[in-house]
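Sorry, explain these tokens?

***
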Amino acid sequence: MTMDAEAPAARVRGRAATKRGSPREAAPERGGVGWRGLWGRCWPLLLPLALPVILACGGNRRALFAESLEAYQHALRWGDVGGLTSYLGQQARQRLLARGAAWRELRVVEATVMRVDWLGSSAARAVVQLEWYPLRSGSLGVTLLSQRWADGAGGWQLTEQRVIGGVPLPVLTLP
């Protein structure tokens, strides 16, 4: 009988010693280390192992590049010149805006990213297939573009875009 009376009292004391009374938080009183205590003791040992992996992944840089690339292709697809210029430097922006009449005569059917090559941690080259047609003729053209992107203070910027295959489309060539 005394055993049964002591067992609930021990459980009550264990819960009273912790704020919430969860079994995980009461673990140190039962002779274990507990999950918080173990992490608190081991993180200095694990940090040197995890740091190269974190740095090699490029952090959030690649995710931001993917978002920029997708947004630019979306603007290209829908003829949003304002959206396109937000990813261009000053010289390329002026050159694109000067071709406004040519843009109004062009409809893009599909813009597909075919490949992305990383050129270091802050530069990438994307190959994009563009399906388009001029409003005057309506005949479908396919153009393969090479885009060079650089990560700067203002985010990812398109620094070069040139035609590398298919039907030539001078309106898309950017310095």
